Amino acid sequence: KKQLFLFTVSLLFSGLQLTAQNPLVTHMYTADPTARVFNGKLYVFPSSDIVCEDGKGENGFCMPYYHAFSTEDLTTWEDHGKIIDQTEVPWGKKDGFGMWAPDCVEKDGVYYYYYPAPPTDKSAFRRVGVATANDPEGPYLLENDYIKGVDGIDPNVLIDDDGRAYLYYGGGKTLRVAELNADMKSIKGKPKVIETLPDGYKEGSFMFKKDGVYYFTFPHDQSGSEEIGYATGKNPMGPFEYQGIIMDRFKDGIWTNHHSIVEYKNQWFIFYHHHDISKNQHLRSMRADSLFFDNNGKILKKKATLR
Ligand code: FUB
Its Gene Ontology molecular function terms (predicted)? Predict the structure, then answer.
């Protein structure tokens, strides 16, 4: 099922300053948007919030499946429908409602979709699974088991210029990184805790590389809601030096924010979420805004364009 949605954001695109409307789609709740450019299109892979019933879900979230979205003009969005459902996860609880923030990357023509889910073996709060496809829109084939040695949420993958791939993930107060093997479905050695970041709860990290610099970005909470901050380094596994805040915390009753940063058609964007349709922090909507760097590569702080 394909549907088209119009959205407008405050962005500088193809030389035009457009004033437009966030959130990006309104026919369903979407959170944790990971934006990626594949084959000239901008794809977004969010998680999905639904209303929790009968005590389902965790931490107030009920998140049973993933959709994929794409656009070519940042105005018209196509919903490619459900690409993975919790009931299909071979190693996952079938009533888990715990399909939290995902990521998708491409290597040698194969699309690798990384997602967290609650395992039936109860060995962890979340494990991270991999699904593969020949097209970003699917169909995806789910691996029979989760990635051994990885225990956490919010997987994010960087494929470096030399072809080596790194898996970042979080949970609790720490963010971790492990190098992926060439199969993209297993890790080399033990994950490493990323240090030299600010104290407090951290999750939802997103790594990108620009002009040879590794930008390690992450939601961070010390006082009841998440701001998005970042650190930079010269190595994908750190060390990183904390640089400051990209987006301030919201002060209107939502605890989470979760973002990704991508360049599309010579403009950088930050994708994130807010609860501005529902006013319920467990029913979020994905959004986007343009993002800029100064001449020294520092990210200019972004104020969310709330409507
Ligand atoms: O969406 C569920 C969780 O909330 C995500 O995994 C976190 O990053 C936060 O957005």
Answer: carbohydrate binding; hydrolase activity, hydrolyzing O-glycosyl compounds
Q: What is the pLDDT of residues 112-123, one digit of tens each?
A: 999 999 999 999
CB-CB neighbours of 294 under 10 Å: 8
The DSSP code for 78 is: E
Nearest of 168, 164, 204, 169 to residue 184 by alpha carbon: 164
Distance of alpha carbon 127 from alpha carbon 295, whole angstroms:
40
What's the Rg (C-alpha) of the chain? Answer: 18
Alpha-carbon span 216 to 299, nearest angstrom: 12
Tokens representing residue 19 in the block: 């004033």
**Pocket-testing residue among 50, 97, 153, ligand 1, by greatest number of atoms within 8 A of Cβ:** 153
Q: Which residues line ligand 1 (CB under 6 A)?
A: 31-32, 47, 61, 100-101, 153-154, 203-204, 256, 258
Whole-angstrom distance, CA of residue 304 vs CA of residue 306:
6
Centroid of ligand 1 to alpha carbon of 225 (angstroms): 12
Exposed/middle/buried for 211, CB within 10 Å: 0-12, 13-18, 19+?
A: exposed
Residue closest by Cα to atom 3 of ligand 1: 100
**Residues identified as active-site:** 32, 203
How far apart (Å, rounded) are the C-alpha atoms in residues 192 and 178? 6
The verdict on pTM exceeding 0.90 is yes
